[in-house]
């Protein structure tokens, strides 16, 4: 009876051949389903579903969050660049979920820019991590209440995420923001002109139209400047190998109106470098000078104009004696020292920035301290001379759009025999749109200048003859008394 029951029970189990047949059928069905899935479900949708499922199953009942703050008031000496990158990055992330946004179109940008206002949030997903962005305002100290509204521009960003992703957000996500913002702003860079007041740099758009093609300068000198700039840009590894800071110094010297400022603008436009205009009169101490120089960003041109007007840049012996004898009531205020200026240009402090150019301008090179002029501080000295015939040809092409004229030969002769600046000739060319009339104005101007020069030379000869005559008379009197 028991053996019968056992045999009956074994007959209830399927045979091995049936199991193999069932397995083969099931495997075939899975293969068909998988192929259909890959054909019907796009890769992006698959990635989205996997991300959402991972987020769903990774969530805990009581998650813990960390917060990073990105603001513009960095405690160190350098400026926080991440906040600018964050603004550009978020402008591409704002969608219809954000009911109130700040919008605007700025010069030099092709597209309208959008930005968050206080109270609005953006949820960004990076490698399956949900990161929440929120804009918060800084405390407004304006008691007048003019800026006391929700659109007040000063503020900072808070990014919040689960604490288990802290390392990934810090090392990968923030780097992702910098890279993405750089891509978004390519081709839309607007050069900036920075000026310093009350210990801070403030900027406006720099839109000077000067270019090397438009400069009234001899071709060979222009080419040497361009070649020097190109060589500088390509020598990052060279400067590193020889142990020098990656910077270059230029001294532009010559009479007023010879185009020093236009050359600086042409350099900035050629290199796509921002310009920092540093007025030494606003520097009150060595520490103030160091901070001003350290706040200057890379890929920039620092301009110190009319360096000869600052006594600290003169010969040190003269500077010292003049300051000791000064009875000015403000002489007690300690200004920066020449040694501090030299240290910022070519000393230890100069190594705190790279890919920077420093340009000094002066009308009187001879009064500057020799320590400023040596290579390593002012590497290239550029003499901005009076206008030459070649320079005038460029002016005529720019202003009148002509390459040749029957008056050019006479004008060239007068330019060689007089001393006129490109700025003064440009002013004459502006007097008429007609080429004949404009060049007649230039010709009359040059003739007048030549007459004035001849008159001055005659007066000098007469004065010299008068002095010599007086010396002879004095010598005769002495001989008679003897």
UniProtKB/TrEMBL annotation:
Q: Which reaction does it catalyse?
A: ATP + H2O = ADP + phosphate + H(+)
Q: What is the name listed in the Swiss-Prot or TrEMBL entry for this protein?
A: Mitochondrial chaperone BCS1, putative
List, in alphabetical order, the GO biological process terms annotated in this UniProt record: response to stress
Instruction: Give the UniProt keywords, A-Z.
Output: ATP-binding, Hydrolase, Magnesium, Nucleotide-binding
Asked whether the keyword Magnesium is assigned, the reply is yes
Specify the signal sequence span.
none
The species is Ricinus communis
Provide any one GO MF term from the record. Answer: ATP binding
User: What phylogenetic lineage does the species belong to?
Assistant: Eukaryota, Viridiplantae, Streptophyta, Embryophyta, Tracheophyta
The record's annotation in InterPro entries points to: AAA+_ATPase, AAA_N_dom, At3g28540-like_C, ATPase_AAA_core, ATPase_AAA_CS, Mitochondrial_chaperone_BCS1, P-loop_NTPase
Q: Which Pfam families match?
A: AAA, AAA_assoc, AAA_lid_At3g28540
Residue ranges occupied by any AAA+ ATPase domain in the UniProt entry = 246-388
């Amino acid at each position: 009876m028991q053996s019968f029951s056992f045999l009956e029970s074994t007959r209830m189990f399927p045979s091995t051949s049936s199991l193999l047949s069932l397995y083969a059928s099931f495997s075939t069905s899975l293969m068909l389903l998988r192929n259909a899935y890959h054909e019907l479900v796009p890769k992006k949708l698959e990635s989205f579903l996997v991300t959402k499922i991972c987020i769903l199953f990774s969530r805990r009942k009581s998650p813990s969050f960390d917060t990073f703050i990105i603001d513009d008031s960095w405690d160190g000496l350098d400026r926080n660049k991440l906040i600018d990158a964050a603004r550009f990055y978020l402008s591409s992330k704002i969608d219809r979920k954000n009911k109130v946004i700040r919008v605007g179109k700025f010069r030099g940008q092709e597209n309208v820019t959008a930005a968050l206002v206080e109270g609005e949030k953006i949820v960004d997903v990076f490698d399956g991590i949900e990161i929440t962005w929120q804009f918060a305002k800084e405390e407004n100290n304006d008691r007048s209440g003019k800026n006391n509204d929700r659109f007040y521009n000063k503020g900072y960003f808070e990014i919040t995420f689960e604490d288990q992703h802290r390392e990934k957000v810090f090392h990968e996500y923030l780097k992702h923001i910098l890279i993405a913002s750089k891509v978004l702003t390519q081709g839309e860079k607007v050069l900036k002109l920075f000026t310093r007041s009350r210990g801070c740099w403030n900027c406006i758009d720099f839109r000077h139209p000067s270019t090397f093609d438009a400069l009234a300068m001899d071709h060979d000198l222009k080419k040497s400047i361009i070649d020097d700039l190109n060589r500088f840009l390509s020598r990052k590894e060279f400067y590193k190998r020889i142990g020098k800071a990656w910077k270059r110094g230029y001294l532009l010297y010559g009479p007023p109106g010879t185009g020093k400022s236009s050359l600086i603008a042409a350099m900035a436009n050629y290199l796509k470098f921002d310009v920092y205009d540093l007025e030494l009169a606003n520097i009150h101490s060595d520490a103030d000078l160091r901070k001003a120089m350290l706040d200057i960003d890379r890929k920039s041109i620092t301009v110190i104009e009319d360096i000869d007007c600052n006594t600290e840049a003169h010969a040190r012996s003269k500077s010292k004696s003049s300051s000791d004898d000064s009875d000015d009531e403000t002489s007690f205020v300690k200004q920066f020292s020449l040694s501090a200026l030299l240290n910022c240009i070519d000393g230890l402090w100069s190594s705190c920035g790279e890919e920077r150019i420093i340009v000094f301008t002066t009308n009187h090179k001879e009064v500057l301290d020799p320590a400023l002029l040596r290579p390593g501080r002012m590497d290239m000295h550029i003499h901005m001379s009076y206008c030459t015939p070649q320079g005038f040809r460029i002016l005529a092409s720019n202003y009148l759009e002509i390459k040749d004229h029957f008056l050019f030969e006479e004008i060239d002769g007068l330019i060689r025999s007089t001393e006129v600046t490109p700025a003064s000739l440009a002013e004459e060319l502006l007097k008429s749109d007609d080429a004949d009339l404009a060049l007649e104005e230039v010709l009359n101007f040059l003739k007048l200048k030549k007459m004035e020069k001849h008159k001055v030379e005659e007066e000098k000869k007469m004065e010299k003859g008068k002095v010599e005559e007086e010396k002879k008379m004095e010598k005769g009197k002495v001989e008679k008394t003897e």
